[in-house]
# Entry
Amino acid sequence: MHTIKLFIIVLLFTTGFIHASWANDKVLFILSADKHGYYLPEVVAPFEHIKKHGFDIEFASPGGSEGFPAALNRLSEQEKAIYQGMLSTTNIKTPKPLVDVRADDYVAFYVPGGSGPMFDLAQHAELKRLSLSFLAQNKIISAVCHGPAAFVDIKNEQGKYLVEGLKMTAKSNAEEGSWPRENYPFLLEDKFKAQGAYFSFAAPDEPYVVFDQGILTGQNPKSALPVAKRLIELLLDK
# Structure
């Protein structure tokens, strides 16, 4: 009987310790600060899913700008309530400048899409530093839709493109309309293929997620929650 009681006490203590340890781990959300904005539905749903699994979430952006949240009208009533809570309980209005972010402080980062990342997160020096630093520490870097623009043109110490030889996805050419084709500096599918990635995708507007060697990517807005779910699976499996 004493042995059984001791086993139960140890089990409860161990379980409590595991949950407590995750409660102190943080996931970084990196937002675009560009005038074209970041896509709010790709922020709120992943935020809620990651948060409910016990992870703290902090926000960062180039220069610490709050940026331009887009598509508030695309949120459900429940998501709008979550977003209102985020405004008062997180630093989404006052993100940390990327220059002040250290990989040591987080277990993963996530980049939502919107048109903004195509203009300010692509080729961003601090984001390049963070991407390489996170991966060097065996931490996950993730992005969805146009968020993977954060991973273009990054080269490692050997001068090799970060995505070369890796499976990747992002907004496909088939999903881009006339405005992006005329105004974006590049299309993600074209860029990743040119840099040696094995770029794959599903039918337009279908959720699709790819993970390869620490880099987790999702194709489109419908892939945002699946990316968050996969991220949690990967983190809990570590």
Summary: The first strand starts at residue 26 and ends at 30. Residues 2-23 form the longest helix (22 residues). The domain at 2-236 is CATH 3.40.50.880 (Rossmann fold).
